[in-house]
Amino acid sequence: MNNNNPLLDVLTRQGVLINVSVRYWRATKKLNPEDLGLNPDNVTERLINLGHKKLLPKEALEPFALIESRTHAFIEASTFPFLNGLSRFLPNAKLQEALDRVNQVAGEFSRAKTEFLARYGEMRQHALAQWLAAARKLVSDPERLVATIEASFPDQSRMERYFEFSSQLFHIRVPESLDLQLVNAAQHQAVVEARDQAARSASERIHHGVEQFLGDCVITLRQQTAQLCEEMLESMRNGKTGVHQKTLNRLVRFIDQFKQLNFVGDQQMESELERVRQEFLNRSAEEYRDQASARTRLQEGLQALGETARQLAQQDATELVQRFGSLGVRRFNLAA
Predict the structure, then answer these.
(1) Buried b / exposed e along 305-333 (16+ C-beta atoms within 10 A)
(2) Whole-structure pTM over 0.90, yes or no?
(3) Which of 44, 156, 265, 278 is deepest in the core (most CB within 10 A)?
(4) Average pLDDT per 10 consecutive residues for the chain, totaling 336 residues
């Protein structure tokens, strides 16, 4: 148990914390006045911002930028920010899917890195030639500027260290005490007291944050439901085809996603979504386009679902959070 906190104890069994990092060389150089042959005393930062300049064309690093954005988008869609974004909470129902996706993207990153490193020398020489052509038009001493740019390119042998795709999974655990390093006798008592205080402070922060975190998870899913309804209705009103199959499929995927992320147990919202699935998602988009009355009922159903989700998002989720804790404790005690 986590220091007799039933909510935290159940939460640790419902998922894990995940951190995914995508790191790659950004190929930028911050220029200073001297690089351009300017007198620093004559450069007013209020008027002239030299800023960061690209060492390579943007497209050279686009594969990594795409991998980074896709990875962050998936993680954000599959998790909840834990303790003000300290980490991301991944429910067990999404764990295998997340691991499969992370492994897939890690492979893509590795292949992109291999290809980039194989072409690095060639891209570097091509970029320096482009810089020289540009520098001759911009500054009085182009060779000086190009020498600065060239020095900003890492050596080929050191390049690999700038690229890393990593992921870590963590269990949530409240510290009971902090291990002591070797200290002398005079320091021992002070260190013990300081570390015990640090452990208590960390425990209190986590305990106080768990209930808020669980409530935020419930509210987030309800708000996402309302937002989806608004976007679907907007698409139906302004789209050329009225009701598009992609729009209906989006709702199907959202309902499945909601169930996977609904680890707190928001049965009311989940029941509403399932009712909409049974009532409105057994028709094709073509049928809705051909039947005005069915299309009207679909729009009314989405409006009602969106309004219900907005109302629920404004309600206090304390009762639901407490039920999550009590039911979870009983369930795990029975399984023990």
Answers:
(1) bbebbbebbeeebeebbeebbeebbeeee
(2) no
(3) 265
(4) 66 91 89 54 43 80 96 95 85 94 96 96 92 83 84 91 94 60 52 55 65 92 97 90 92 97 96 97 94 95 97 94 73 45
